[in-house]
């Protein structure tokens, strides 16, 4: 995977830090002591994978084009001007669900997702790959299921991306992701990307042409939110892979900054019978979910999101 001519590994025992960098300008630094994996692009912070969080691993902060923060700081950093102190479980970028065998991993209850192993944190070509194994633990301390998460991060054509691949394993018996809007692959945006609010300047569209507040609960291959921030047009597009369960997915896409792909909340989104969205894995089975976050320059049209989506699906990015 790593080219020894391009990659330099430095191990600093005192700080329990492993670092890899190459001439392409990407750096990955795993600090075992603080349980963080920092990814830099061209010598500046892009994001950190933080598996030191109490409830679930997250990516925070996320720095997009022009050095603009793409996600909200709260609750990791509080009292930031313009930010709302609501929904403390909306922690930058994460994957969870609100009802898994009657355990709520979405809200900040007693349930938690614990990273038990970092399989790798390394350069892979011009990208960085972080692979982890995680246990989903109920409030009684017993495992509900587990996952293997592979996150690929990098830069392409002036835009930054996070490719997020999660394989859920029914490793502790049958596991059911139950029908609720509270899920699943989520991001809480920079408040300027909101559609409503004191500092809101955002607009939104999905692959079906629905706009702004019309996105909530709709099926779509992708959604895109953009705004002018610090004088620059930037946005966040989220892609749902064609191999995903119930593609094109339904979206828990709010006007206050939450955007989440959720294939399970059919009762809430489509007003169908409760439980319609339930999905069960039998003991020993697995299910993969694959999403792509594009942090782009320009508005929706300038970024050509449909073309970017097709390129990702075809493997060309």
Q: What's the number of structural domains?
A: 1
Which series of helices and strands comes N to C?
A: EEEEEEEEEEEEEEEEEEHEEHH
Major pleated sheet: 8 strands, antiparallel
Number of helical runs?
3
Q: Note poorly predicted spans.
A: 1-15
Shape: globular
Strand content: 35-45%
Class from helix and strand fractions: mainly beta
Average pLDDT, all residues: 93
Which strand order spans the largest sheet, edge to edge or round the barrel?
8-9-10-11-20-16-15-14
Global Rg: 19 Å
How many strands? 20
Please summarize what this structure is:
6% of the residues lie in helices and 44% in strands.
Question: Care to describe what's here?
Answer:
With 317 residues, the chain is mainly beta. The protein contains 3 helices and 20 strands. It has one domain (89-313). It has helices at residues 266-270, 300-303, 305-313, and strands at 8-12, 17-21, 26-31, 36-41, 44-50, 58-62, 93-97, 112-124, 127-137, 143-156, 159-169, 175-177, 183-188, 203-206, 222-229, 232-240, 251-253, 258-261, 279-281, 286-297. Strands 8-9-10-11-20-16-15-14 form an 8-stranded antiparallel β-sheet. Strands 1-2-3-4-5-6 form a 6-stranded antiparallel β-sheet, with no helix packed on it.
Main attributes of the structure:
317 residues, mainly beta, eight-stranded antiparallel sheet, 20 strands, disordered N terminus
Break the fold down into its secondary structure elements and pairings.
Layout: E1 8-12, E2 17-21, E3 26-31, E4 36-41, E5 44-50, E6 58-62, E7 93-97, E8 112-124, E9 127-137, E10 143-156, E11 159-169, E12 175-177, E13 183-188, E14 203-206, E15 222-229, E16 232-240, E17 251-253, E18 258-261, H1 266-270, E19 279-281, E20 286-297, H2 300-303, H3 305-313
Antiparallel strand pairs: 1-2, 2-3, 3-4, 4-5, 5-6, 7-13, 8-9, 9-10, 10-11, 11-20, 12-19, 13-18, 14-15, 15-16, 16-20, 17-18
């Amino acid at each position: 995977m790593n080219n020894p001519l391009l990659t330099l590994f430095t191990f600093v025992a005192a700080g329990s830090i492993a670092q890899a960098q190459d001439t392409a300008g990407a750096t990955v630094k795993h600090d075992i002591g603080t349980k963080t994996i920092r990814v830099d692009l061209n010598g500046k912070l892009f994001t950190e994978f933080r598996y030191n969080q109490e409830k679930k691993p997250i990516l925070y902060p996320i720095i997009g084009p022009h050095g603009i923060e793409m996600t909200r700081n709260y609750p990791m950093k509080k009292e930031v001007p313009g930010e709302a102190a609501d929904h403390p479980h909306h922690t930058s970028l994460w994957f969870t669900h609100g009802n898994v065998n009657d355990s709520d991993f979405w809200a900040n209850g007693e349930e938690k997702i614990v990273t038990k192993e970092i399989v790798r944190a390394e350069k892979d070509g011009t990208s960085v790959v972080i692979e982890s194994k995680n246990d989903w633990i109920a409030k009684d301390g017993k495992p509900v299921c587990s996952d293997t998460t592979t996150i690929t991060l990098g830069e392409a054509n002036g835009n930054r991306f996070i490719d997020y691949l999660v394989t859920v394993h029914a490793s502790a018996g049958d596991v059911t992701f139950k029908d609720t809007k509270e899920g699943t692959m989520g991001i809480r945006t920079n408040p300027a990307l909101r559609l409503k609010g004191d500092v809101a300047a955002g607009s939104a569209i999905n692959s079906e042409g629905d706009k702004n507040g019309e996105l909530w609960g709709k099926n779509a291959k992708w959604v895109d939110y953009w705004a002018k921030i610090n004088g620059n047009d930037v946005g966040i597009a989220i892609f749902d892979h064609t191999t995903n369960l119930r593609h094109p997915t339904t979206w828990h896409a709010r006007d206050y900054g939450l955007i989440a792909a959720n294939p399970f909340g059919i009762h809430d989104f489509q007003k169908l019978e409760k439980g319609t969205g339930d999905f069960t894995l039998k003991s020993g089975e697995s299910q993969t979910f694959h999403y792509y976050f594009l942090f782009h320059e320009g508005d929706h049209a300038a970024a050509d999101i449909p073309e970017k989506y097709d390129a990702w699906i075809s493997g060309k990015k």
